[in-house]
């Protein structure tokens, strides 16, 4: 997979390679695309709402792709998506709002 396989403000259901080379399903909301990685919010399980830096090579397969309408998009300050913020981190707990969801 590479940057051109994904789009901002889309929900994806993917097969993700995690630590220990385990393949797991994951639901993602993509906030930003960089050349080697994406910044995405997990929307499933105990890690729901947490932002992750995910390398494209860790995504094995895209199962489902769905564009998110403007009323259901998650909003984040642009400063949180700055590459300098993500230079030395892989996970970030942020609480963004979805105006159409009452959050």
Task: Describe the model.
With 103 residues, the protein is mainly β. It has one helix at 83-86; strands spanning 10-18, 22-33, 37-42, 50-55, 59-67, 91-93. It has a 6-stranded antiparallel sheet with strand order 5-1-2-3-4-6, with no helix packed on it. A hairpin with a 3-residue loop joins strand 1 (10-18) and strand 2.
Tags for this model:
103 residues, mainly beta, 6-stranded antiparallel beta sheet, 1 helix
Percent strand equals 35-45%
Tell me roughly what share of residues is in helical segments: under 10%
Q: Structural class, from helix and strand content?
A: mainly beta
Strand order in the largest sheet: 5-1-2-3-4-6
Number of helices: 1
- Low-pLDDT stretches: none
What Rg do the Cα atoms give? 13 Å
Largest sheet: 6 strands, antiparallel
Topology:
Elements: E1 10-18, E2 22-33, E3 37-42, E4 50-55, E5 59-67, H1 83-86, E6 91-93
Antiparallel strand pairs: 1-2, 1-5, 2-3, 3-4, 4-6
Short synopsis of the structure:
The chain has 103 residues and is mainly beta. The protein has one helix at residues 83-86, and strands at 10-18, 22-33, 37-42, 50-55, 59-67, 91-93.
């Amino acid at each position: 997979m590479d940057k051109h396989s994904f789009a901002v403000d889309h929900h994806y259901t993917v097969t993700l390679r995690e630590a220990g080379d385990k393949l797991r399903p994951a639901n993602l909301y993509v906030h930003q695309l960089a050349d080697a990685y994406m910044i995405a919010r997990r929307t499933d399980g105990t890690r729901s709402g947490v932002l992750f830096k995910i390398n494209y090579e860790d995504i094995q397969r895209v199962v489902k792709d769905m564009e998110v309408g403007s009323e259901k998009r998650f909003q984040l300050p642009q400063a949180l998506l700055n590459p300098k913020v993500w230079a030395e981190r892989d996970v970030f707990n942020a609480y963004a709002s979805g105006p159409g969801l009452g959050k």
